[in-house]
Design brief:
45% of the residues lie in helices and 20% in strands. By secondary structure, it is an alpha/beta fold. It has one domain: Flavodoxin domain (Rossmann fold, 3-Layer(aba) Sandwich). Keywords: Flavoprotein, FMN, Oxidoreductase. This is FMN reductase. GO terms for molecular function: FMN reductase (NADPH) activity.
């Protein structure tokens, strides 16, 4: 059985951050749903602040260096992506946008994506629909129907906001799991493992 791979991208800038907390909970929900479907799953979480300088260099030179190259490789091979950003000025953070600007759009074509965001006020929840969803639709990603926004008040223990957040996280994780599990393997590159030259020549004498 093939192992399904999930890559979680967290654009939080502080340690700890509510953005990373939401990213971890969404990842756990998607993992649990995949395993309930009998799938093996492997995950990697990327903190964008750790590769921020490499992202800026790649935007200027168009050449990924340092720790960015393996991150981009993982994105290209992922069966599902969880992308979570803090809200700055009513939109995604500059680091979040810059990172996905250096991702090859072809690597996101058809890839299931679960979007999430965090902010101090519930009024910023529309960032999922007016900023994140259009951005990933432009790259032809398959965006899970449920996006998850978490305001500061949603993290309170035992309140209705906390229960509703948990329900949204579970539903979104389940939707991503379905999309990732149904994702067809990428077509093999015929030039990745070419026929050895000796084998090609062996038939010329017949």
């Amino acid at each position: 059985m093939a192992t399904r791979t999930l890559v979680t991208v967290s654009a939080g800038l502080s340690t700890p951050s509510s953005t990373r907390l939401l990213a971890d909970r969404l990842t756990a929900a998607a993992e649990a749903s995949l395993r309930e479907r009998g799938e093996e799953v492997s995950t990697r979480t990327v903190e964008l602040r750790d590769v921020a300088h490499d992202v800026v260099n790649a935007m200027i030179t168009r050449v990924p260096t340092g720790g960015l190259r393996p991150v981009l490789d993982d994105i290209a091979e992922a069966d599902g992506i969880i992308a979570v950003t803090p809200v700055f000025n009513a939109s995604y953070s500059g680091l979040f946008k810059s990172f996905f600007d250096v991702v090859d759009p072809e690597d996101l074509d058809g890839t299931p994506v679960l979007i999430g965001a965090t902010g101090g006020s519930p009024r910023h929840s529309l960032v999922l629909e007016h900023a994140l969803r259009p951005m990933f639709a432009h790259t032809r990603s398959v965006v899970a129907p449920t996006g998850v926004y978490a305001a500061s008040e949603d993290w309170g223990a035992g309140g209705s906001g906390g229960r509703e957040l948990a329900q949204r996280i579970e539903r979104a994780g389940r939707q991503l799991a379905v999309l990732a599990a149904d994702r067809s393997p990428a077509a093999a590159d015929p030039y990745e493992e070419p026929v050895p030259f000796a084998d090609l020549m062996s038939g010329l004498g017949t």
